[in-house]
Amino acid sequence: QVAAGNSSEVRGEQLLRQVEDIIAISGKARVHLIGHSHGGPTIRYVASVRPDLVASATSVGGVNRGSAVADLLQEIAPEGSLRRLFIVSVADALAGLIDLLSGGGYQQDTVAALNSLTTTGALAFNAAHPQGVPSDCGDGAHIVNGVRYYSWSGTAQLTNALDPSDLMLAATSLVFSEPNDGLVGQCSTHLGKVIRSDYQQNHLDEVNQFLGLTAPFATDPVSLYRQHANRLKNLGL
């Protein structure tokens, strides 16, 4: 449970405190972390600062090199502009609603979140926490400091005619010059061992949203998590 809108570092510290609690309560030595979207850098922070507590870190549609959508928002709504004030107000309200519904009780800072998700913000974060990040559009280091790094993602936008969120993701996909899931470019999602980065899934399909309305004949997103749990189990983790 982390803030819906805040920097990767703040969210990472919030997650780290919970990881420490889980380990203390369960008596287990390490945890497996899976993070979607901004959750990718969030779990990477924990794996970077406390690798002794983490067995694996898996990024799903993770914003590991920034997002062209975040870059565009920074460009069209510069600091101090009325447009920026409007976007931040709406984003803070949405983040607050998500936090309220999930019972988090965290302070929201969507400006910090946006800064973390830009290409510039992601590069600065990667300089401090480089583990698993590839130098090109391929795989990154698979095992760093005893932590296994994995990733997967999709490159589709319109996957189900009944899903109203598909139209939004189709629109945001137009700002990219590479295959993308509507919010994150394919190369940005790569981390550690890339399981696959071209599933017929958009950014919300990757976590079985909206209401599970994913592509009818594509890989079921839920099955990917089951397969990954088995993958880790078979490694003795």
Textual characterization of the structure:
There is one protein chain. By secondary structure, the protein is of the alpha/beta class. Helix content is 44%, strand content 13%. It is built from 9 helices and 5 strands. Strands 1, 2, 3, 4 and 5 form a 5-stranded mixed beta sheet that branches. Strand 1, helix 2 and strand 2 (54-60) form a beta-alpha-beta unit. Helix 1 (8-26) packs across helix 2 and helix 5 packs across helix 6. The model has no long low-confidence stretch (mean pLDDT 94).
Write the layout of secondary structure elements.
Blueprint: H1 8-26, E1 31-36, H2 39-49, E2 54-60, H3 68-76, H4 82-102, H5 110-117, H6 119-128, E3 143-144, E4 147-154, H7 165-172, H8 186-189, E5 193-199, H9 221-234
Helix pairs in contact: 1-2, 5-6
- Unreliable segments (pLDDT under 50, ≥5 consecutive)? none
**Overall strand count:** 5
- Ends apart, CA distance between termini: 23 Å
Tell me, what's the shape?
Answer: globular
Radius of gyration (Å):
17 Å
Please state the structural category. alpha/beta
Query: Main β-sheet: number of strands, strand sense, barrel status?
Result: 5 strands, mixed
Query: Could you give the order of the helices and strands?
Result: HEHEHHHHEEHHEH
Q: What does the average pLDDT come to? A: 94
Helix content: 40-55%
What proportion strand? 5-15%
- Number of distinct helices: 9
